[in-house]
């Protein structure tokens, strides 16, 4: 299991944000440090799963030195986040959705560090868990 550097950022009056220099655009946040770390693990896992599903390469983790050499990263606190991947087999499917719903899904997924597939899988699991409870 590979570990990637996540950068925690905190502005006054905001949640704890986490970004991943090896995965530009993958961001998440948590109300406290524990929540931020948990959300970081989830966001990274879903993003990596999406890359695998799409047949894209997963980058090698950058070193701390390489990450911190970028001046834009120096205001964050570095943590290691394990890239936990799901061992279940992914199956490609074709789904038809209204275009406005798809645009909203894509915008939400991107804003919260998910891939489209990762977000849809997570949303479906949450709804199904609600039905069981």
TrEMBL record:
It holds the Pfam family HicB_lk_antitox. InterPro entries: HicB-like (IPR031807), Ribbon_hlx_hlx (IPR010985), TTHA1013/TTHA0281-like (IPR035069). It comes from the Bacteria. One of its GO terms (biological process) is regulation of DNA-templated transcription. Residues 4-124 form the HicB-like antitoxin of toxin-antitoxin system domain. This is Type II toxin-antitoxin system HicB family antitoxin.
């Amino acid at each position: 299991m590979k570990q990637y550097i996540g950068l925690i950022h905190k502005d006054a009056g905001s949640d704890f944000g986490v970004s991943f220099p090896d995965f530009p655009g993958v961001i998440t946040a948590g109300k406290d440090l524990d929540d931020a770390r948990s959300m970081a693990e989830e966001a990274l896992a879903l993003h990596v799963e999406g890359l695998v599903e799409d047949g894209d390469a997963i980058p090698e983790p950058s070193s701390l030195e390489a990450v911190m050499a970028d001046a834009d990263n120096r205001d964050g606190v570095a943590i290691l986040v394990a890239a936990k991947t799901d061992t279940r087999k992914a199956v490609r499917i074709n789904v038809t959705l209204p275009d406005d719903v798809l645009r909203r899904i894509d915008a939400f997924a991107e804003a919260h560090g998910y891939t489209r597939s990762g977000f849809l899988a997570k949303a479906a699991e949450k709804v199904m868990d609600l039905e069981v409870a």
